Sequence to fold (685 residues):
Amino acid sequence: MNTSQLERECLTYTRYLIGRVPSQYVVNRYLDFHQKSDAMSGLGSDNFDHFLVSISARAPFWARMADSYASVFRKGSIVRKKLVVTLALLECVAPSCEVFDNADGRSPLATLASLGWRAARYSFLFGASVVVFTPVRVAMAFSWKPRAEAMLEH
Amino acid sequence: METIVVVGSGASGAHFALTALGKGRRVLMLDVGHTGQEVVRPADSLNQLKHNLPDPVTYFLGSRYESLVLPGAAGEYYAFPPTKQHVFRSRPEFQHQSSGFSPLYSFAAGGLAETWTGGCYPFSNRDLKEFPFGYEELGPYYAKVAAHIGITGAHDDLSDVLPWHGELMEPLDLDEHSAVLLDSYKRHRGYLKDKFGCLMGRARVAALSRDLGNREECRYCGRCLWGCPNRAFYTPSLTLDACRTYSTFQYVSGLYVDHFRLESSKVKSVVAYSANGQTHEFAANSLVLAAGTLCSARIFLESVYRNSGETPELRGVMDNRQILMPFVNLRMLGRKWNANSYQYHQIAFAVQGAADEYVHGLVTTLKTALIHPLVQTLPFDLGTSISVFRNIHGALGMVNINLPDHRRDENYITLDVGATPHRLTIEYRPQPDEPDKLKRTISTFRSILWKLGCFAPARTVHVRPMGASVHYAGTLPMTDTPAPLTCSKYGRSHDVDNLYFADGSTFPDLPAKNITLTLMANATRIAEEAF
Fold:
């Protein structure tokens, strides 16, 4: 995968996860991870997995949509792994780590209400993601070939 | 002066050696002795490290991202820090196969307890009922170990089951979550005791609440999990450092001890290999195996095979089954938390009847562990999961429940001499009624937590595989009556005259309490009484 695509992923995923732009250090580490790890090699993944990565890198909204869908139907997908890598990098580094280290400081009741609102929002987005992505997945299923198999054919 | 050869530098070996040196004996310690990285920026708190380190990702995730937990990875709730990866670095000579058991080994200087969580729980007379001695004999050695390593504790309800052996320091400062839990317990203690036989109190931990020797008291910097920067938290490598101050101590690292040679049913020498395959042989007047139950068994079995051609089965291997039970304390929801606190358990449970026997629980409210392994398990997209997690982080806790184990003949260790190199073989079958005991224990602890105002989701309860607690014991037990493949109450082998065992191999039973303190006390006792 080319560097500019990976940089775009890192930028979009960071904006989606914490609402900020990543530091150059985080971007470099994101690239470094993809160089050193074979976790994203794509073996065993299908075209729909790669479609999710591709669309999620377009904008934070699409990252959330793809992630919502993957949170139920594709927990071990590449897009989910890339998001977890971004999260892991952000939590190790200042100033992004501060986002994870601070609670809102509300009362238990207010916190429960807030959690309920977030869960409802997630449910809505998940429903939307099912409507959007299921037809794509079904369509791709008819033309599916494992990537490793496809590579061997060449 | 005769030299005692000690194999292994873990909790048992280091304490045996220090005591023998204190008695004026000469000690040669043989060890693989892997070591980790130097402490970085010791004055910084964990959060300051994230700001001040030039390359924080390498420190927290590792240079090859080995501490990064990706979706689909089977495992634990906490990522293992890169600073401690050396503890589980293996040696190619050591091969094993197992059934029903997932063993962990260490070839690190200081052994497996370099990654322990500091729990120091003395065995009572009831715990020692299968041992050839009682608390009266072991108690003074608990106190001696406490004076050396520094243990904090409080005289509270747990003193009913945790003997008060003396030399204990005042407790560490409680973090807010632990204080809230103890406060709940105080309001419901009568009910909890009557209904569940549940006692709760301050944990006994090997961390300093005041300076001890050249070690400083805990600074509450939040770096416990990553390696205490000011040595307030005890690990056996500190005792190894103390041994090194004796001119009569020789520490030879980089050597994998394979076997000993016999002459007239006595150990004549010890054979070890360096990393480049070179063979080293050391004459031994007395040999003390303290390499940990499994590694000591490997050395013993290899030696028996080389000297007799036999491959006996060491029966009765034990380990504590562990259950991890995450929970949310509803009173702590939305609260801000202080990362600058002691990170390991500060509260302990004693439950008398959860599985018809004493069950031991430790409550951890870890704040500074990496969060990505946990966040990805929440049932939302990651953006929502981060928001949710931030607001429940201060309310999260984990109970680590230990169940007892007992020696049973069907559980054994032997050596597969058909393989090259020879392989340690471990067979373990849990008791038939274990599923029922686990179910009752889980139910009891969930009810206790609910009474304390905490919710423990059933689907997050994790029964760890046998072997995960690393409390291995029982392969060459202490007995009053001499018998093959056993040892005396002073760890002296009943098969080989000048061979001693000073680690968990010698335990004839395994109570639910963490065993490390008793390993140290027993090794000290053996060195004091037998040499």
Q: What stands out?
A: Chain A is about 75% helix and 0% strand. Chain A has a mean pLDDT of 89. Helices of chain A lie at 3-18, 24-36, 47-56, 60-73, 78-92, 97-101, 108-142, 147-153.
